[in-house]
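Reviewer 2 asked us to include a model.

Predict the structure of this chain.
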Amino acid sequence: MESTRTLIIGLGQLGCQLINDVDKHSVEKFDLVCALDDDKSKKKVADTFGFIDFGSTNELETKVEELKIDYVILAITNASARFLNDIIYRCLKLEVKTRYVTDEHAKIDEFEYFNTPITKKNLKNLKEFKLSENDLDEKEGAVLVTGGAGYIGNHLVRDLLNDGYEVIVLDSFIFGNSALSDLRDDPRLKLINGSIENIRDVFNSVENVRYVIALAAIVGDPACSLDAKNTMIINYESTKILVEACNYYGVEKLVFASSCSVYGASLEGSYLDEESTLNPVSLYARTRIFSEKYILDNAINFSPSILRLSTVFGFSKRMRFDLVVNLFTVKAIVDKSIEIFGGNQWRPFVHCKDVAKAFKTVALADENIVRGQIYNVGDESLNFTIDQVGDLLKTILPQTSIKSTGDIDDPRNYKVKFNKIKNDLGFKTDYDLESGIKEMIQEIYKNKSLENYQDQIYSNLLTFKEFNLKN
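Predicted model (structure tokens):
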């Protein structure tokens, strides 16, 4: 019987038990070539068992290539989930057969699907799947955008199409699909009317795509407060479905939309970065934190990145007037007055087109730079207090009267740094607050229907309230 050149990661109690099992009981012939362990003292254990090579987990790729390894067995019980998943991810990228051994299923001859990552490629030998070589080829350049007909999504879809990518949009179209109406005849665009909470919709959408950009969610504190159970299903449980689909099909990257609202009511008073303490004050922010953690803890067959978005503003074909800058702008035009609650709260702002640009930048960036990273999206020059936003509007539209009240209806208060995305990826925003407001003013003057800012279609809260009533 031809032997299988095997590398074992972990020479603790479980690893040693496994090696003894291989030597004494395995029906398959394993050639134990190399052991990896980050504890250098385990070199003595490796020598005792007769391994011809020993190293640290950082050497995984080198050892697999140099020693022509066929099989990697992971036998570590005391490491974090992210560390273990990182090892599994690297093994899958090497396209080497991989098994992770647990205390529950520690014997090498046990049914292998207890301990093998469940991916499409790993199931290729099962007769029921009948996978052709084409099914297992490298992914084409298609990009899936969940929520692609939304406020940010329609900008992103345009950017990707303009760059020559095929784009698949998975959207429930609760807000309609007019934001993409001018693109419907583009043969590179496929629209799927479905839901991120539907397993079949998600798996059908993820199959054969290279990149997944996850925008779809119930966005905003008021809308998320309508139905807590529904919010958890859409904003968190659906994330689990998406992660499973990305792992199964082995997409190249998943870029996920989170929010700077995870910083909440800042206790630090200074500028916050990606390492700062999280202090969420709403269910919406908590679902972003839950989803961030789940993605980073469970990504074994794709590269994950998280984008924490500043408070978004600016004109979009799927317009929103439930965002502070947008609401202030339209009220200054229509009512010639705005009301400010509190006013001293700090917020970082970012234009919706710049957000689309950030998602595209991260999706197309070098995986070695962005894998497992969290990025704040915005610019330090766009940190404003609510009072300062009102003052700027009055400068642009002098007829605006401002009524201020000491009552604070939103306790969030934070200033944010954006050095990381700038230094890692060279990302810069194109819009400042003034240029974004002026663009909105022009669009509102051109399209009088936008003056009806209280219409349901412009509000996530009102639209989801109506949707919940119908369902």
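The longest strand covers residues 30-36. The first helix runs from residue 13 to 25. We have added this to the supplementary material.
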